[in-house]
Amino acid sequence: MRIGIGLNLLAPDNGxxxxxxxTLLRHxxxxxxxxxxxxxxxxxxxxxxxTLPPEARQHEIRLQTQEEAxxxxxxxxxxxxxxxxxxxxxVRKPSVLTFHDMQERFYPExxxxxxxxxxxxHYDWSLRMADAVIAISDFTRAMxxxxxxxxxGKFHVVGHVPDALPAPEKPAGxxxxxxxxFAFYPANFWQHKNHLRLLTAMTRVKAASPxxxxxxxxxxLGRDAxxxxxxxxxxxxxxxxxxxxxxxxxxxxxxxxxxxxAFASLFEGFGIPLLEAMQTELPIVCGNNTSxxxxxxxxxxxxDAANPxxxxxxxxxIHADEPLRARLVAAGRERLQDFTxxxxxxxxxxxxxxxxxxxHPLRAWYNERVRLPRSLQMRTELTEREQRVAARLLRxxxxxxxxxEQVTP
Length: 409
Prior knowledge:
This protein is α/β, with parallel strands linked by helices. It folds into two domains: about 1-160 and about 340-380, Glycogen Phosphorylase B (Rossmann fold, 3-Layer(aba) Sandwich); about 180-340 and about 400-405, Rossmann fold (3-Layer(aba) Sandwich), CATH 3.40.50.2000. About 40% of the residues lie in helices and about 15% in strands. The chain has 14 helices and 14 strands. The protein has helices at about 15-30, 45-50, 115-130, 140-145, 195-210, 225-235, 250-255, 270-280, 290-295, 310-320, 320-335, 340-360, 360-375, 385-395, and strands spanning about 1-5, 35-40, 60, 80, 95-100, 130-135, 155, 180-185, 215, 240, 260-265, 285, 300-305, 405. Strands 3-2-1-4-5-6-7 form a seven-stranded parallel β-sheet, with helices on both faces. The protein has a seven-stranded parallel β-sheet with strand order 10-9-8-11-12-13-14, with helices on both faces. Helix 9 links the parallel strand 12 (about 285) and strand 13 (about 300-305). Helix 3 (about 115-130) runs antiparallel to helix 13 and helix 5 (about 195-210) packs across helix 10. The mean pLDDT is about 95.
């Protein structure tokens, strides 16, 4: 089988999605040598593709536009789009996409009308037109099926894997005193990452703990002043260090030196830092929402990420409770066995096989003649049904099973 993979959206600021795609490409030649990946690449991909071993780039075609991929479809058996949308679409080849989330249905206030329009247009119709879909978590599959109406039979749930971390190097911008304990949060300054509530939580942490600090990494997306002003307003500027985007070696050092992962996100399709924390035996604090319970299960201390007091309670407890820390680290080692490269590759191969089995000329005709015209009727507002379903999904995710560690403010 020969798989063509569209890489137009491969970019550094695409967060965990970029890590997922690079990990897949890096390991594909070793774990699936009988199935070639033909890379439909672009000039802007080069810095990231240059990090791959040569064997991962044996088959590559440099494009100017995504539509040019259609000229090379005679060379492939399956067309694969790993960034959440199928484009171009529809196509007369078995097609697969990896679906990551539809956060706009849950937090519409985080998006502009234009962003809503683009997401409705791309996400809903990509899910309907693709022959198979890889969902990165049970929660992601649930939202796609229950909100967008995608057929459950086309889905394969395939979790991410943590990429290997390099030898650790102390961050060049380090300003905390030697040995000062800190919680670590690697996340771009997107609204759903919830930095402002985490900073508010640090006010209480500072009052209760004489030394616990917070270290953040990731892009501030040009909103540096907003972040630092919020830290000063919360009275914790002396306890918060934001290092910005740092090399992976420095990320590796931070995971290994931190007291806990402070993953205060409001919304996750998956959450790769959860696996990276397990990999480095770092205890986890995370939100009791969306996919985080799917991924961490009993390897995290859960809090209400919408409540700064709950976040603070969790950070203070994990900092002080050594038996809890040991339990979470042990559970993380066990949980990590479910996220291996072998399972990642096999899950993708199964999805590609499903696409080839489901693809049919009548399905292609229906996509072109019925779904494509309907997709051009653009919209910008959520329906009442979508809002109800999204609210129900959020409620269901906050009810954690027995045996998990949770805090209340």
